[in-house]
Amino acid sequence: xxxxxxxxxxxxxxxxxxxxxxxxxxxxxxxxxxxxxxxxxxxxxxxxxxxxxxxxxxxxxxxxxxxxxxxxxxxxxxxxxxxxxxxxxxxxxxxxxxxxxxxxxxxxxxxxxxxxxxxxxxxxxxxxxxxxxxxxxxxxxxxxxxxxxxxxxxxxxxxxxxxxxxxxxxxxxxxxxxxxxxxxxxxxxxxxxxxxxxxxxxxxxxxxxxxxxxxxxxxxxxxxxxxxxxxxxxxxxxxxxxxxxxxxxxxxxxxxxxxxxxxxxxxxxxxxxxxxxxxxxxx
Length: 283
Fold this sequence. Notes:
- The chain is mostly beta strands.
- The protein has four helices and 21 strands.
- The chain has a single domain, classed as 5 Propeller (Tachylectin-2, Chain A).
- The protein has helices at residues 2-12, 15-21, 161-164, 190-196, and strands at residues 28-30, 34-43, 50-53, 57-62, 65-70, 76-81, 90-97, 100-106, 114-121, 126-135, 139-146, 149-155, 172-176, 182-187, 203-206, 212-215, 221-226, 235-241, 250-251, 258-263, 268-276.
- A hairpin with an 8-residue loop joins strand 17 and strand 18 (235-241).
- It starts with a helix and ends in a 7-residue tail after the last strand.
- Keywords: Signal.
């Protein structure tokens, strides 16, 4: 039955189906394995690139600014903005790690691609640190922390192929140790690359059991993958329909299964609950 459900899921979420359904509202969708339920959404002017969450707040991310919102009231209680003419160009996503907000940043859409991680104090909403990759494997879109390693996704885009010779197939997930020394790397399955279209992987996280969740640029889909036992291609195991539209997302650290995403075109944060029918929430 599980194999049948997976086959149905993969068929439903082929690139053609995704294109046909891109504009449909999906308030409650059930697949054979996963259940997604939107709980609420709220307006946030920073809802342009991604979102991160800690125990009490949601941090909404745009290119050169952050908004801080209470989870209980959704009131905006803090912000950070880059100074005019400052060094920030394109923040993409963020995670909370050791009490700090770590944000993926790049010089998109410029070439050559350069990337950095920008670190913030989420209490004071101040920029407190940076780590630069310089010219890296691509444009940094998201980072994750799992089993004492860093994971970083470096994207490529079809628009750059005439200049770089590289398209989204060159997008790579790289694992680093704490000194940012590369220890491994993987690429994404061709079927998911087709759904990305000319864009790439915009958001990602790794659950405690090693399950990898990713999103594209604008598809209403959360892809479920696992690391391969051999080879370099990540294994696509399932697709979860969601009402957020791609970009970077966050799981709630205190409420298992609570999922935060954004809708870029309407500047909204979407709060959902995602669970596996048999096993409970994914994290």
